[in-house]
Each structure stands twice: as C-alpha cells, then as structure tokens.
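Task: sequence design from structure.
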C-alpha cells in the first residue's frame, strides 16, 4: 500500500507494543524487538527482488531466472541488484533455484560487471558516437550481434521442455519486435524516412538495394530473423534433442552454416552490402552462441581461432575488425570485469536501454552532429534511456491489465 518493496518489510508478533512514558509508541524499542523474533530471510528477500524485476507474483523458491521467463532485457537489472544483495554474483545464477542462492561469506570490496553487460553498454555508446561524428570507432553493432547469440544460448535455450523454449523465444522476439514496429511506424508517419518494409522488419526482401534510412534499423531486423531461425530449428524435435545432448556441436554446426555464407559459397539475399543482413552476420551470431557453450579451454580456443580466421576482410576495415575481435574475445575469455559502483550502475542502465537508444538515436543526433557532436551523443543516450523507462511502465501496465483487468503492475498489487 505504501509502495515499499516487500524486502524492506519485517514483521513480528509480540505481546505488547512498547510505549514511552507519554503513551506514544516507542519506535526504537519496537525496532529492537524485531531481530529477536524474526530471523532474516534471504530467500524471501530474493523472491521479492525477482518478482519486482520480472513482474511476476507466482514465483517460488524453486523458480530460477530462466524458468521464470527472464531474458537478456531483464537480465541486466536483476544481475546488478542480485550482486548488491548477495555480495557476489554466483556462477550460473540464472539457472539456479532462488532458494539455493547464498549470500557471500565475505562480500567483495570491488564490484564486478558481467562482460556481456559491459559489452552491450560500451557497444551502444560506440554506435551512437560513430553516427554522431563524435568518435570514429566503428564495429559496435556487430559486437552486439555476437552478444545477442551469447545471451540467446543462455536464456532462450535453457534446459526446459521444447514448448517452453519456444514460448521463451517468442516472448523475447515480441519484446523486440513490437516496440521497434511502433517506433518505426511513428517515424514513417511523421518524417516518411521509414516505409512498410522497415515497420514489418522485411527490408532484406522488400527494401532498397542501396543503403538508405530504410536500412537504419538493420540490426533489429537481423536479430529478429536470427531468433526466428533458432525458433524454427528448436521446433524440429531432432534438432532440439541434438542441442540438448551436444550443445556445443549444435552451435558449431550453425557457425559452419554461417561461414558458408561468409565465404560466398551460399549467395546473400537482397541488401545494401554484405554486412547488414541476417544471413551475412549469422556466423557472428552463432559464434556468440558457441562462446556460451564453450565449457572447456579447448572449445574456447576453437571459437577464438574461428573468429580470428574469419574476421579479416569481412568489413574491409582493419580497425572495425579489431573492435569486433577484441569485444568477442572478451566475451569468450572474461566472464566478468572489475567495475567501480558508479560505472557499474551507468553500464547497467545503458545496457538495459540499448534497444531503445538504438531505435531513437537516428532521430536525435542529426540535429546536433555538425556543430555539437558530443551533445548529440548525450542527447541520444538520454532520449533512449527515457524512452526505455516509459516503455517499461507502459508494457508493465498492459501486461497487468491483460492478466488481471487492473492497470497496476503485479508487483505493485502485491505490495
């Protein structure tokens, strides 16, 4: 009722409320009574945390992030808040039951940031900086392609039944496709820069052959088509069984298919060039998937070797290839990075809002790129973060209304 998170509340049943000589409640004495009657309940606190981030009120101690339908969009916020609460981020926490997550015996003094989160934040900043003419470093979008494959393997291909996998993949695609289509349709109506192929994510089939504003959202279109490809594969029972028995081999097979396109053995479909369509970047996406499944040093070395052999000449730009190589090698070899608290929070916000920054920055930076490029960067990031916040509120209310007929999010109703 007061809007407090459930984890902030302690309750104790006592015989009588302590009072001052004046008869008023003795708050200090009352607070002293609570620890004596109620032991801390980390699992209860964690349930409240998971319910708040995932907007679920049906979680139990046996639930995990993956089983509760978490994806790469909600992963960032929960991982940061979970580390704050536990004092560390347990390995494999996203597939661990909530009741099995234990606080650190000795919390780390220096906080860490998962490499995938750091790369999402840094890559989207590089994308905006390059487009705004503030910094001539390119390659961020293709790093994001590899990170997308990495996260899909962890969240979309979790050890749950096949139908549940398909449901998770469909939900993840919806959370990307719907806001993109809404934004693209709005831009099409206001400025005319986008057409129906952009709104429908079908530029690869219906869009122009030359690069134009129609292709500005190529990354989202490619990502959706790649997620769709994975969903089609998972829908085939034999592939689903193979992926469960030999997850690295399944990822490697997809890398091989992508390399056939990379080598020109399989011709590319329509598009402005060879680097901005789903078939063209399939091998990078699959390498991210393989990196998530590389459980041994030998497999990590194999993924790294394929990356370093296939990258040269892909862009025709050594600097761009170096950026992608460094980013994806970090994804393979460095699970987490030390990070000061302030930068950690900033990176979390940028990573969480990266989709919305990407969508909206095309309409922000052009007004500032000539005379004030860095202002264009800051304005683009700010607008993207604000749009993300608004979208989260709206989507939460819509989900709540669809389930309960009320407009408050489930977590708010519970509190």
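Answer:
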């Amino acid at each position: 009722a007061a809007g407090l998170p459930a984890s902030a509340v302690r309750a104790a049943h006592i015989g009588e409320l302590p009072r001052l000589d004046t008869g008023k409640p003795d708050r200090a004495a009352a607070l002293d009574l609570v620890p004596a009657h109620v032991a801390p309940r980390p699992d209860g606190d964690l349930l409240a945390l998971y319910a708040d981030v995932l907007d679920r009120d049906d979680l139990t101690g046996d639930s995990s992030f993956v089983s509760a339908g978490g994806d790469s969009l909600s992963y960032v916020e929960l991982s940061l808040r979970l580390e704050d609460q536990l004092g560390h981020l347990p390995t494999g926490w996203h597939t661990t039951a909530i009741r099995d997550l234990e606080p650190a015996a000795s919390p780390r003094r220096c906080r860490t940031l998962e490499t995938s989160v750091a790369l999402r934040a840094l890559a989207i900043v590089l994308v905006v900086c390059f487009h705004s003419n503030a910094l001539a470093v390119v390659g961020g979008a293709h790093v994001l392609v590899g990170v997308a494959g990495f996260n899909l393997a962890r969240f979309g291909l979790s050890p749950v039944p096949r139908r549940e996998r398909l449901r998770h993949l469909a939900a993840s695609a919806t959370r990307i496709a719907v806001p993109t289509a809404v934004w693209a349709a709005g831009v099409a109506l206001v400025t005319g820069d986008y057409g129906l192929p952009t709104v429908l994510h079908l530029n690869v089939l219906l869009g122009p052959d030359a690069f134009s504003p129609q292709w500005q959202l190529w990354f989202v279109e490619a990502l959706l088509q790649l997620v769709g490809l994975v969903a089609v594969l998972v829908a085939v029972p034999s592939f689903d069984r193979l992926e469960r028995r030999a997850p690295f081999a399944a990822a490697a097979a997809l890398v091989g298919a992508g390399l056939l396109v990379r080598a020109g053995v399989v011709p590319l479909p329509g598009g402005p060039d060879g680097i901005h369509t789903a078939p063209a970047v399939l091998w990078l996406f699959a390498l991210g998937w393989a990196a998530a499944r590389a459980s041994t040093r030998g497999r990590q070395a194999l993924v790294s070797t394929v990356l370093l052999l296939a990258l040269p000449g892909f862009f025709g730009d050594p600097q761009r290839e170096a950026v992608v190589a460094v980013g994806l090698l970090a994804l393979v070899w460095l699970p987490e990075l030390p990070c000061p608290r302030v930068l950690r929070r900033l990176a979390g916000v940028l990573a969480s809002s990266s989709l919305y920054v990407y969508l909206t920055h095309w309409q922000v930076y052009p007004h500032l790129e000539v005379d004030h490029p860095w202002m264009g960067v800051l304005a683009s990031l700010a607008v993207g973060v604000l749009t993300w916040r608004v979208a989260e509120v709206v989507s939460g209310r819509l989900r709540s209304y669809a389930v309960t007929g009320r407009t408050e999010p489930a977590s708010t109703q519970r509190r």
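The longest strand covers residues 112-114.
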